[in-house]
Amino acid sequence: MSSLFNFGFTSRTNKSKVEFSDSEASKVEEFTSEEPEGSKAGSSGESSRTVELGQYGETSAASSKSVSLGAEGLDLGSKDSGPKQPDLASYPQIKVGGKNRSFNKAWYNQFTWLEYSVSNDAAFCYSCRIFPSVLGHKERNFTENWVNQWKKAIEKFRKHSESESHKTSFSRWQHYLQSLTEGSISITSKISAHHSQEVKSNWAYLTQISQIIIFLARQGLALRGDNENVDSLNRGNFLELCSLIADVNPAFGERIKAMPLNATYLSAEIQNELLNATAEIIREQIAEEVNSAGLATIIVDESKDTSSKEQISICLRYADYKEAEGYILHEEFLDFHEADDLDAKSLSDQILREVGKLGLRNVDIVGQCYDGASVMSGHVNGVQARLKEHFPNAQYVHCHAHRLNLVLVDICKNVSSAGEFFVLLEALYVFMTRSLVHKVFVNFQQRDKARVKELVRLSDTRWVCRYQSLSTLRTRYRYVVEVLEYFCDSQDTKRDPKLVVEARGLLNQVMSVSFVTHLEVLMTLLSHSQALSETLQASDTNLGNAVTMINTVLSIVEETRASGWPDLVQGITQICEENNIPTMPQPKRRRKQREFEDSVLMSPTGHRNQPEGESSADILDDLRVNIFLPILDAFKSEMTRRFSVSNIAIMRGVDGLLSPSSVNFLKHDAVGPFVDLYADSLDVDNRLLKAEMAMARQIILNDNEQKDPDTSEPPGRNITHSFSSMEKLIPFANLPNLRKATQLALTLPVSSAVCERSFSAMKYIKNYLRSTMSNQRLSDLGVIYVSGGRSKELQKNPVEVVKKFSQREKRTRIQLF
User: What is the pTM of this model?
Assistant: First the structure.
């Protein structure tokens, strides 16, 4: 004990003296003569019998009694004696703020744990000194140091008595006294029971806090408020939700009140730690699944956040095989990283660091997917080339969704009328969304009790989403025309002349058969593109599905070009009739040249297209030649160019493994070269693979014959299964080489849509009200928000979150173990 309480006492003043009568000196000796437990004697082996009172002067010369103290000047109680509470007639006074102040023996009755040191004129806490808390947090002023500034002493004692560390120590003291009284009760077991209850209570407290934090993160809601002071009406979602739950959960409410003000575990720092612990658990789950799969693909994209920082989204794609469920495709978001530089070296270094942090073991990176930017796709110094130095089998795949977007962009570049049509649509949207115009547009729809639909703005980057814009315009076309006609009326003197002129110009363009034709043709084309885009962006799609869908769309476009014009003509004619749009041009009076004004034309000498000679059929044929055919031909040409097979072996192999309708399906001639590309890392025996593919193909053919014995196809030639249904027929568990090859084909990426989904989450999380959010918090919130299924399970049972949180660093203010 002596080593724990090394005071190093020094006198602050030598002016005041304390004198004792003989009886008082005897009483002082009674309280100070006992040597503290565990202290050692001086060099002579005996305790010193005389001490100077230092700060308070020497004893009176008239007193014949000397004061006996321990070797280190401690005249406090021991474990067996209890607290030392000397009852003196007077106590040394100290002048503080012009007033004389001293210890008051009446305090013993109010604070039973209080003890007084005569030698130091100081107060100590007996229970905290003899029965220290295992929390590792104690108030040094009441144990190792002393309290002898008597101003506001009662306030200091009361504050100490309300601290968690004192409560634990005091409880230990009481248990000790009770064990001495009862004799048969083990103090160890009582302390252990109290400790267990304390730990259980703390875990319940942090579990509730974790659930609140994960819930807010899953919903994309802000945790903190602008003003979190106690008197604030809105302290933010987190604190307000804690307050709400405290009202309905009394145990949680009492626990919040009992926590020290400096250790409530509701601060922003604790929020960040719990968020990070949750996100790390999700990342560890993903890493474990990738390690189990053994194959993975890296997917990366870049976008700006609300604070104009370039954020890199890093994701992984892998296929996990389970005998009961078959193949389960995963595309998982890992992290946001602020891009310091956008050169290939910096980007590739950041990607490698993030993949390295996952702690992947024996995982082969077989693919990488980015957009077509040169810094990413460059085969010499681009990111894909640098990653291939570390992952030789990582074949680069240009995002198919980006390719499709570029196809539609190029159509507008190659067919000028299509580009002009979309420019006109953008101008129409701007006009219709003006406050005055928009009000009239809504009123016209409500007048007819129609559902109010708003025109959709055209997206500059997601062209396939323009189908929605065209569809809304198609269904509300007559209201658009009516609004334009309403504002073309210049009789209203209050109307803005600029608005009138703009309305007339737009009405003249919209009320034309050419505009309607563009609307119908592009709607038809974009409807097919929309379905293809959704397939390419689905997280469970694969290259086999992508190739099949691309070929299907091309076939539909070819069929539409050959025989789809009559159907489009019906739609064009219907719109024109409903809105009184003339399908025939108005005859134009030809002006005679001045030199022939007095002449009479007897017969023409050449042919010239006369408006009055044109028929409706001629007009429709002109629309077909100048609008319909150029747009469809441009689409087919760009699709063929953009989706040309850059690696024949890969595409044929994927086609042969994942496309049951393909002539290459389960044919070793197509799949063999594909597997050879990954021979260094893929544990597949090509000879056994050939035999397993023949067995699988026969199983499917036999199933077909049993289902449709009357088919006109020769026996064993017709395969009608999709991959999902085929997967249920083939016993992959008994065909390991085919299973591994199929897993490889499924793992290869199709698009970087998973990154786009993470950017949508980023805009929702880091909005303009939360633009100062740190990157680590953004990344952790993004993982929790995007991985909704995983985070929901952790919200239901956040034990692992609390466990990881408790292991981060030594928690000195709350017991968790």
Answer: 0.71
